[in-house]
Amino acid sequence: MMRFLKEAIAKGVVAEIFAHCRNLAIAAIFMTAGAFVAQNPATKAPLVGFLNASVAGYVALGVGFALLLLNLADGFHKLSKFRAGLVLDFCLLVLKQAHYSAEQQKVF
Question: How many domains does the chain have?
């Protein structure tokens, strides 16, 4: 186990995992802040001339969602370069199952 960890650190895998988690946290912060501002505008005063707070909140929410999708695409791209096809297959299986569950909830 320690040998595997040392090899992962030497190859930079651990740094990539932490960078991926950091990027996910930043996207989540954008989305949370955007949703909060969109639902609870503190003031109706324009922010940039014509842009009010709720529009700015929706823009921040969209930016956060775009960052989330870019991070997901980057993660899958990096996983496909590794010889860990099983890990990529597992991630895609989880996403497919989540999509299937969401579709089943719409039916009932």
Answer: 1
Tokens 């297959």, located at residue: 89
Cβ neighbors of 92 (< 8 A, separation 6 or more) are 76
Q: Is 31 helix (H, G, I), strand (E, B) or coil?
A: helix
- The pLDDT tens digits for 49-99 are 656 778 888 888 999 999 999 998 888 788 777 665 666 677 777 777 776
| Domain that residue 68 falls in | 2-107
Task: Read off φ and ψ for residue 102, nearest 5 degrees.
Answer: -65, -40
HEC-encoded secondary structure of 17-55: HHHHHHHHHHHHHHHHHHHHHHHCCCCCCCCCCCCCHHH
Instruction: Tell me if 71 sits within 8 A of 24, measured CB to CB.
Output: yes
> What CA–CA distance (Å, rounded) separates 34 from 29?
8
